[in-house]
Design goal:
Shape: globular
Largest sheet: 8 strands, mixed
Order of helices and strands: EHEEHEEEHEHEEHEEEEHHEEEEHHHH
Oligomer: single chain
Number of strands: 17
Bound molecules: flavin-adenine dinucleotide
Structural class: alpha/beta
């Protein structure tokens, strides 16, 4: 196939949003991989920040999500591993509409696929070479084209996995997200409205590999009990709804994100631990940056010009590096058994909690990255 402005390879959330954003500029886009639907439904719920929601609004995707597939987070409560160590954020004190929105991952993919199928300048095409001045790679962390281009992406394996599932509680979530840092586990409960409005939540439980295997093998009643033990009943009595799924956790960053005629976005460029719920937010940040750089290019500059693509690379270098370091630093701080670090991290939580300007800074970083 030939004659398009941009070929986007990979039709996950990042690739689909990029295709829609470029089509809105009047560019013709070939999107590869749109026909490949995952065999199993994604059980995850994504925490999306304000900047990501704004992008989805601009692409007319946000309003197409069913109301119970996007739940606002008004408060966030983070607990350390010593009694009384906690950090609280609220939308009200940050002066924002919501701290984040929890979105159904499978529903987001469905709505994006529908938007792509109706977008006038986007053609879904099969695998193979497409004649286009720019190839945008959004193939996810195992990007084979990135490897073929010879771009190194050193991977740090955490020896941890995240167990994700949907839960139901006997207590209303009231828009509160909760997170427990209990060395070496990190457990997050994200308020959600499916399957039961106001009474559901998404679980992301990061644990050492062997514990993840044990959690996956447990019968439902034992799993529910493990959840109650880990959360101390703070979010009510929790019950598993549906399947569990598990993801190995890594930190990785491509050594180069662009070259003549190609560019990397999303997990193909950077992978972070999900403890801060920022991987897709970073990927959608890539989409915004690349779309802006392309829209602002000089009329004579070709889409695959490395100088143009370097502008994108420069914009994204700091946010992706900073998020990788932040999540990695937090994970190591809370995974350590050293008494001095234990003391430090728990005092640190309380200290930050007592410093509203620092809290505002942390929250605005998470809201906009
Ligand atoms: C447990 C867990 C919880 C998470 N929670 C959050 C959260 O709360 N908030 C958040 O922001 N992020 C979260 N993330 C991160 C988020 O899931 C990823 O950052 C995001 O899905 C990356 O999207 P992507 O489109 O770049 O890659 P992917 O979703 O991996 O999509 C890539 C697509 O490209 C396709 N593909 C690959 N190769 C080819 C090819 N050669 N040709 C055509 N197609 C190809 C793949 O099949 C796939 O469909 C979480 C991650 C995990 C593991």
């Amino acid at each position: 196939m030939k004659g398009v402005d941009v070929c986007v390879r990979g039709a996950g959330a990042v690739g689909s949003c990029l295709a829609l954003a470029l089509a809105r500029q009047g560019l013709s886009v070939a999107l590869q991989g749109a026909a490949a639907r995952p065999a199993r439904e994604d059980v995850r719920t994504y925490a999306l920040n304000a900047a990501s929601v704004q992008l989805l609004r601009e692409l007319k995707v946000w309003e197409a999500l069913p109301a119970d597939a996007r739940t606002a987070v008004y408060d966030m409560h983070v607990e350390g591993d010593a009694a009384g160590s906690a950090l609280d954020f609220s939308a009200w004190s940050q002066g924002v509409e919501a701290l984040a929105w929890i979105v159904d991952a499978a529903e987001l993919e469905r709505v994006l696929a529908a938007a792509v199928s109706f977008a006038p300048h986007v053609q879904s095409v099969a695998e193979g070479e497409v004649d286009a001045p720019l190839l945008a790679l959004a193939e996810g962390k195992a990007s084979s084209t990135r490897d073929k281009l010879g771009v190194a992406m050193p991977v740090q394996r955490y020896g941890q996995s995240a167990v994700a599932a949907r839960l139901q509680s006997d207590l209303a979530h009231a828009g509160v997200a909760r997170q427990w840092f209990r060395s070496p586990d990190v457990l997050a409960l994200l308020p959600f409205d499916r399957p039961v409005p106001s009474m559901s939540c998404g679980l992301v439980w990061s644990v050492p590999q062997a514990r993840a295997e044990a959690l996956m093998a447990m019968d439902t009643a034992t799993f529910d009990q493990a959840l109650t033990d880990a959360t101390g009943g703070a979010a009510g009595t929790l019950r598993l709804c549906g399947e569990r799924a598990v993801w190995p956790l890594t930190l990785a960053r491509a050594e180069q994100v662009c070259g003549p005629g190609w560019v990397l976005l999303g997990d193909a460029a950077h992978v972070v631990h999900p403890l801060a719920g920022q991987g897709l937010n970073l990927g959608l940040g890539d989409v915004r940056a690349l779309a802006q750089v392309i829209a602002a290019r000089e009329p004579w500059r070709a889409l695959g010009d490395p100088r143009l693509l370097q502008r994108y690379a420069r914009q994204r270098a700091l946010p992706t590096l900073a998020m990788g370091q932040l999540t990695d630093g937090l994970l190591h701080l809370f995974a350590s058994d050293l008494p001095v670090l234990r003391e430090l991290r728990n005092r640190g939580l309380n200290l930050v909690n007592g410093l509203p300007p620092l809290k505002r800074l942390l929250a605005s970083f998470a809201l906009e990255s």
